[in-house]
Design a protein that fits this description.
Bound molecules: 1-deoxynojirimycin, calcium ion
Shape: globular
Strand content: 25-35%
Amino acid sequence: INWSYILLVNTLLIANFNLNFLYNQYFFIMRKCFNLALAAFMGCLLHAQTLQSPDQQLKMDFSLTTSGQPQYQMTYKGKQVIKPSTLGLVTKEKSLQKDFEIKGVDVQVVNEKWSPVLGEYKEIVNNCNELRVHLQQKNSDIKVDLVFRMFDNGLGFRYEIPTQDKIHYFELTDETTQFNLTGDHKVFWIPGDFDSQEYVYNESKLSEIDNNKLNLNNGIALKTIGGQYVVQAPLMMKSADGLYINIFEAAVDNYPVMHLDVNRTNYGLNSLLAPNAVGSKAFLRTDFKSPWRTIIVSDDARKIVASNTMILNLNEPSKIKDTSWIKPMKYVGVWWEMHVGKTTWDYAGSQDGTSAQGLKANGRHGATTENTKHYIDFAAKNGFDGVLVEGWNVGWEDWFGNWKEDVFDFTTPYPDFDLKEVNDYAKAKGVKMIMHHETSGSVANYERHLDRAMNLMKEYGYPATKSGYVGKIIPRGEHHDGQTMVNHFHYVAQRMAENKLMVNSHESVRPTGMNRTYPNYIAAEAARGNEFNGWSEGNPPMHETILPFTRLMGGPMDYTPGIFETKMNIYGNKDSKYCVHTTLTKQLALYVTLYSPLQMAADLPENYEKYPDAFQFIKDVAVDWDDTKVLEAEPGYYVTIARKAKGKEDWFLGAITDENARQSEVTLDFLTPGKKYIATIYEDAPTADWDKNPKAYSIRTVEVTSKSPLKLKLAKGGGTAVSFKLK
Ligand code: NOJ
Ligand code: CA
């Protein structure tokens, strides 16, 4: 590792050590006086510690309260961001919240560069100042280290309990981290639910957060709200004086997800860990390191979006040595047709809990050999890497909401899905198949079958699986956000990596930068995806303008963009009010604004065939990048991002807006100066409107350079997508 260390071990101590050598008995008394003064001075020094960002705009002050509670506060450009806030852990045996003394501190500078396997940048700079405070509790003698890392983007800190005699295995019952804010900030929030993040964002003041006022009849089958004022992280806020503040966590491993309990009168946030089945939070042992708690701050919203690199920097480097098999993928799939009710996942169509074998086919099964071949043809013709097929395996008749242990075996196909024929056909056409493992929440069952499931994938050459966790978790009593599930996702990523397989999980723990450590964990859902537009009130136009500030902070999302036919009343039910809340070109722009190295073209092949000129953008757009520039951003309003395709001179731009039309002008100074590019601009027609006229778009081609201005005109709920090709 290229860590460059500057070890600032207490210079005063070194000086004192030298004194021991230099001074003889004549100076005995003098030295004694010096030592006393030094001890007093050291006490003061240790009592309060300051840590600054490399650019000195951010400052964190650490101290102990009079009762020996660790406490920190933070400023940005001299403005307070976090008021004095205390830190602590509670184990079943012992409260580790107060009576601490500082035993020493270590400081180091981290400055390195690294390259993600798949990502938004070719190279990421990891530059921060680190302060490690060694604490010891007076009565118990238990040692706890607090580690703070200050980047130019913000602060990360974590708890460590090193190996020691006084504590070994322990049960964590609470973490009492505070984030005390300075005012009644505007906040984009979703309820703190231990089982789902698939919510629409609410925009309000901190003091107005109230889960009891929400309509929770929202298409989410399973909910476990953690409390009336509990919200999820990443929490995106904006202060009255224009500071953007994002509270999140990084590198969550062997630990539950952190939610935030809002104190609406003091504007404080308190950590609330997702509980386990026995009512505590985590079973742990020393040498223990908690996830990092993160506070990202800027007066420029664009910098918040670009600060997801800080989350990656707080994660461990890749545990996978040979990553040559990890590849980005654009895919289509036997998928949307089930969501819109055209076909079914199940073969027999009986939801009565009996197995499908021996039951009469319902005649509407989507995952047939024939239908899959149709998608393979479509993928091959249009240059897609993969085809996902859901509903290929036995079990779908009784998968939903039953809390059943053994619904799927992940290896037995339905009688009308010929594994060999499908895979031979795909191979001949140069297309990869994407496996589907819906667990229906029965994680115990999935782990039991995992080896057989992976062997089947290897036998037929599937490079990746999409997994799903709809329903209540088994082991029963566990939540989607608990330590058990966090560990499950690491276990699956690691086992898949051993077999050179990639994973994309739906209904998973929301990622916190794990794709750095396990780059085969190629994407995840873990937020409200496009699918909700197919069968519920859907996602309002502002939804996708918030995701880059929240869900995307932790890693790539399988949002499944690209729905061209946005009104669901074309599928059988003429009265259906369900719809995608965007224009067609906004669906295109999402391929750029929502980063993922795994992107689906989610609509039906026949719908793409109706709009071949617009479909061209989806065919062209890259999914793995050398560079990313956030050109415009305001959470809840708009986002404009430009990205440079990996290893190429091509750039792509995506601009999206909320329910309001928007006009702006951006300069193309990201393009290489002196070179000419052909820009193909896919934009809303003047009459476009996400609700009234979503498919009114136009496409124009212009020659541009890095000096050219680009006028963006976005309809209500609209977007613009641009591809730039070197002339
Ligand atoms: C929910 C997932 O998000 C969706 O993509 C999938 O089709 C269904 N579960 C069935 O597994
Ligand atoms: Ca889902």
